[in-house]
């Protein structure tokens, strides 16, 4: 794959976007962020992107009478910015098929648990950590995965565990998991930027290590 020109989709503060941006600045990741898109007009990530000189766009399906028009506008925006990879950073909308078809195996998401556990529709943010604590899990973690038409279902690229402490609250656990997300997301992108990953159905093959992982 050529130099990663990333389009970031975010609905809030986009802390993972910021962490990826820092990894690029530190020359840990050979990539650039070409546009930040949010479905929320006043999302803080849009102001941050503007401050960094990154094009920031509010694009929501609510702005269009037809869903097809929404997807057409999204794709046009991505094409204009020469985006060849999409990163979801707290994007609270399901990605439509036209985007997934155009960017097959090039849409990446991060989930605050070890999928397939604690995933699926409605499992995001604090809900995930609450479920982990209620279940009594001793270990949680983060999962970077490719996006397909189902929630939290695409091929797993990287996973890292985070231990659950006996006195954890949702807030304390969420902070440690988020810290791990910031360490892991750019590493997953780095694998793509170095052509060290091949996708075969639901299987991710690490071409430099001759190992594979099933979801």
Question: How does this structure look, described?
Answer:
It is a single chain. It is built from 6 helices and 10 strands; from the N terminus they run βαβαβαβαβαββαβββ. The chain is an alpha/beta fold and 215 residues long. The chain has 2 domains: 1-103, Formyl transferase, N-terminal domain (Rossmann fold, 3-Layer(aba) Sandwich); 109-215, Formyl transferase, N-terminal domain (Rossmann fold), CATH 3.40.50.170. The protein has a 7-stranded mixed beta sheet with strand order 3-2-1-4-5-6-7, with helices on one face. The protein has a 3-stranded antiparallel beta sheet with strand order 8-9-10, with no helix packed on it. The longest helix has 24 residues, at 170-193. The two termini are 23 Å apart. 36% of the residues are buried.
